[in-house]
Design goal:
The protein is α/β, with parallel strands linked by helices and 477 residues long. It has helices at residues 12-31, 35-48, 54-60, 177-180, 184-187, 206-209, 212-217, 225-238, 273-287, 318-329, 335-343, 395-408, 429-433, 458-474, and strands at 52-53, 69-74, 78-83, 93-99, 104-115, 118-126, 139-146, 152-157, 195-198, 248-254, 259-261, 267-270, 295-301, 346-350, 353-354, 376-379, 383-384, 412-414, 424-425, 438-443, 445-446, 454-457.
Length: 477
């Protein structure tokens, strides 16, 4: 089944809408390079749209009714957003769910050291990465340092024009004969992904050098002067000590803004599009839908890249708990009613798919591959090889969605993640399917997936937004 190139189908009005959405999306990416930053950005967006924090409604004993809009944030890394419809919640919801974490490099808890005249931060990569892609790039540090007294210090260095950037070094080609013989997985080892953060020693003034008390307080100044210099900057700038790294969450990400790509500006090149492209389009679709018969829900979660584990991952009970609280405020709560709501819900697991890359065509089965510029992608199943770890959606549900999309003239394509025996991937779909609800994976095709810079088509982003909007407005299986 041949799919049209979307650029050939849009009216002038749609092209203007497409570019406006693209501009908003790039700003979203620039403002949200970590899960915490994403949540801050999302909360601003939903509150501007009239949403109220669920916990405030609970504290006030407020009863919720048709048209009310609430949201619940969990640990500053995940969020559930609801707009209450006219039908009882026991008849189910229309749910869009995506993740806001992306592959990156994390800073360890005892990270700062000096070697060979450089100050380094020791690191641990997060998610599936090709480690060799992260060397010799300008990198930024984002995150928080929480001090013993509970004070949270926000860190973002490497994004502003006059900010310094950081980098991970690589061996020069002239000396890399042995390195070049290694397999790609071993060319750069995980323990070699340490970030260079300084090279200038802290200068000790003569009067301070002669001061015995100063020597006792800072005995390592001369011994590790470059490390001491970095610590001095951190103290002066953020009022933090070396021990404060113990209670820090610092993420190393590519420095720089999301950019338009191609002479025709048809694509976006940016960090973190897996899966913030689906998070953004899901959120926008819900915010732009004024009312529906069924309650709308958008879940944006953490930890998908490492198995959806932990208190902020989809496997935690935070979503189920927030739904129970919501139903309590609508007067519908019982344990049975919560189960009925979840089982009767319809969901699009909003996650990216691998875009067909002609340079690596042998990894794809072309008839069942996603192409940039040809619309929203549905993956009936994911998993690896024999569909291991997959949610395999029902044919009836796929037919229902086809009917919705046909009415709204939404262009879509179907795909698998590479050839059958080559690999595969997972999403949050199987976790929501445990409740018995209908779930299917859908989203945007991405080139360079999991690389520091990923590429998407503006047309696919726009069409996916349109598809998500059609879904929350019309799904009712």
């Amino acid at each position: 089944m041949e799919r049209k190139n979307l650029w050939e189908t849009y009216s002038d009005k749609q092209l203007k809408e497409l570019e406006k959405l693209s501009d908003e999306y790039r700003a979203f990416l620039d403002n949200g390079k970590t899960e915490r930053e994403c949540i801050d950005t999302i909360v601003n967006m939903v509150e501007d749209a009239g949403y109220v924090e669920l916990e405030k409604a609970i504290a006030a004993g407020r009863k919720l009714k048709k048209g009310d809009k609430v949201y619940s944030v969990w640990m500053n890394k995940s969020i559930a957003i609801y707009q209450i419809g006219s039908k009882p919640l026991t008849e189910g919801m229309n749910i869009l769910g995506a993740h806001i974490d992306s592959p990156r490099i994390d800073v360890k808890q005892n990270p700062l050291y000096e070697d060979g005249g450089f100050a380094y931060l020791d690191t641990h990569y997060y998610g599936g990465v090709k480690k060799y892609q992260w060397v010799t790039l300008p990198l930024a540090i984002h995150g928080v340092i929480v001090k013993k007294d509970g004070t949270t210090v926000e860190i973002s260095v490497g994004e502003a024009e006059d900010d310094p950037v950081f980098f991970i070094s690589d061996l020069l080609i002239h000396l890399a004969g042995e390195q070049m013989e290694k397999k790609a997985a071993k060319v750069i080892e995980g323990e070699a992904l340490d970030l260079i953060v300084g090279n200038k020693p802290l200068l000790i003034k003569k009067d301070e050098a002669d001061d015995e008390k100063a020597k006792e307080e800072k005995p390592d100044k001369a011994k590790e002067a470059v490390k001491a210099g970095v610590l001095d900057i951190l103290k002066q700038t953020y009022d933090v000590e070396e021990e404060d790294f113990i209670s820090a969450e610092l993420e190393i990400v590519p420095a720089g803004k999301a950019r338009e790509a191609g002479f025709d500006r048809s694509m976006i090149l940016a960090y973190g599009q897996d899966d913030r492209v689906c998070a953004f389009t899901s959120l926008k679709a819900m915010l732009d839908t004024k009312k529906t018969d069924r309650t709308m829900c958008c879940i944006l979660v953490d930890k998908e890249e490492i198995g959806s584990v932990g208190a902020t991952g989809m496997q935690s009970k935070f979503f189920e708990n927030s739904l129970a609280e919501l139903m309590n405020l609508t007067g519908e709560y019982s344990e049975l009613n919560v189960r009925r709501c979840l089982a009767r819900s319809c969901m699009l697991s909003s996650d990216v798919s691998a875009g067909f890359d002609p340079s690596y065509a042998s990894a794809f089965e072309k008839k069942n591959a996603a192409f940039l510029g040809k619309g929203m992608v549905f993956n009936k199943f994911t998993g690896a090889r024999g569909k291991s770890g997959s949610n395999d959606a029902n044919a009836e549900y796929m037919a229902h969605i086809r009917g919705i999309f046909e009415k709204k003239n939404i262009q879509f394509q179907t795909a698998e993640l590479g050839k059958v025996d080559v690999g595969g991937g997972g999403t949050i779909a199987y976790i929501l399917a445990l409740y018995g609800m209908n779930v299917i994976d859908s989203g945007v095709a991405v080139l360079n997936m999991h690389a520091p810079w990923e590429a998407t088509s503006k047309a696919d982003i726009y069409e996916t937004y349109r598809g998500y909007k059609a879904f929350v407005e019309g799904a009712c299986l």
